Amino acid sequence: QLQLVESGGGLVQFGGSLRLSCAASGGGLRYYTIGWFRQAPGKEREGISCISAPDGSTNDADSVKGRFTISRDNAENTVHLQMNNLKPEDTGVYYCAASGLRQCVLARLHYDNWGQGTQVTVSS
Length: 124
Known about the structure:
Blueprint: E1 3-7, E2 10-13, E3 18-25, E4 33-39, E5 46-51, E6 58-60, E7 68-73, E8 78-83, E9 92-99, E10 113-114, E11 118-123
Parallel strand pairs: 2-11
Antiparallel strand pairs: 1-3, 3-8, 4-5, 4-9, 5-6, 7-8, 9-10, 9-11
């Protein structure tokens, strides 16, 4: 069974950068559409970026467009999320998840396998 593990979170100052990784075991990530989600304290988990299985097309939430970039490394069986120009409102727990859909969507109901999350904190 596919298992996902996130890493790369931490504490960063306003305007800084972090690179999150989502590593998989038990299956090839290239066969799944992968999404990144985040959950801020007291808020719903929201989809922020995804990359589709067949062609690598991506989709980003408006809140992160131009700042975050999702990419896939098939050799390492990993999906990365490069986050630049971070803001305090980016603070939250970041999760990666896998979907059997062949298109990139940001709705969490389409994702079946979830990692445990990694904390990102942006100080002002």
